[in-house]
Amino acid sequence: MLNPELIIDRLDQIRTSTNRMSQLASLKKETFLADPDNFAIAEHHLRRALEALLDIGRHILAKKGFGRPEDYMSIISSLGQHKVLPPQFADQIQGMAGYRNRLVHGYARVTQEEIYDIVNYPHLAPNGA
User: Fold this and answer.
1) Per-residue pLDDT tens digits for 45-63
2) Is the N or the C terminus of the chain less surrounded, counting Cβ atoms within 10 Å?
C-alpha cells in the first residue's frame, strides 16, 4: 500500500526546491556566478529534488509491484514505462538520475556554470517555459 504521507512530504520537498531553483534561474548568468551562495543553494536544491523524486519513485515501484529497479536511471525509466510520469518527460529527465551521483560522489568537479545551465534548462522549468 502506498504511503501518502511519504509521497506528499517528498512532493513538498520537490516543490520547495524547484521553486527556489526557479528564483535562481531568473538571475542573469553573471549575477548568479558572482555570488558563490547562489551555486551552493542551487546545488543543494537540485540534489534534494532529485533525492525526493527517486525516493517517491522507488516507493511507488515497490508498492505497486512494478519491480525492483537496478539503479537510479531505471527508477525514472520504469516510472515512464508504467505511466506514473509522462513517458516523454521521463525520457527527458532520465539523465538527471546519473547526475544525482555526480552531485553526491563527484561533487568536487561540479561547476557553477553547469549548475546554472541545469537550473536554466528549458525542459526542466515549470510548464516547460
Assistant:
1) 999 999 999 999 999 999 9
2) N
